[in-house]
Structures are given as structure tokens and as C-alpha cells.
Design goal:
two-stranded antiparallel sheet, 2 helices, 2 strands, Pep_chain_release_fac_I_sf
Length: 46
């Protein structure tokens, strides 16, 4: 199975791992996307 987060365009083919509590790859991708968004907002002129 797969897990998809359309907000950050991420698809993982590790549904069973996520169901069992292995969120590492998913949470890392979400964190990277959040940091990238914050940096982009800081780079915009006020």
C-alpha cells in the first residue's frame, strides 16, 4: 500500500510501516517542506 501527502507531493509505498508507527520518512519530509516554506516567506520583501 501507499501513503500520499498531496500538500508536499510525497508518496511512500510503505503503508504497513506507517501503520506500525514508523513515521520517520514521512515526518522528515513534512519538516523539510515546512522549513522550505518558512525560508521562502522570510525571503519575500516585507
Amino acid at each position: 500500500g501507499r501513503v500520499t501527502d498531496h500538500r508536499i507531493n510525497l508518496t511512500l509505498y510503505r503503508l504497513q510501516d506507517v501503520i506500525e508507527g514508523d513515521f520517520g520518512e514521512l515526518s522528515d519530509a513534512l519538516l523539510r517542506a515546512d522549513v522550505a516554506e518558512q525560508l521562502q516567506q522570510l525571503a519575500q520583501p516585507a
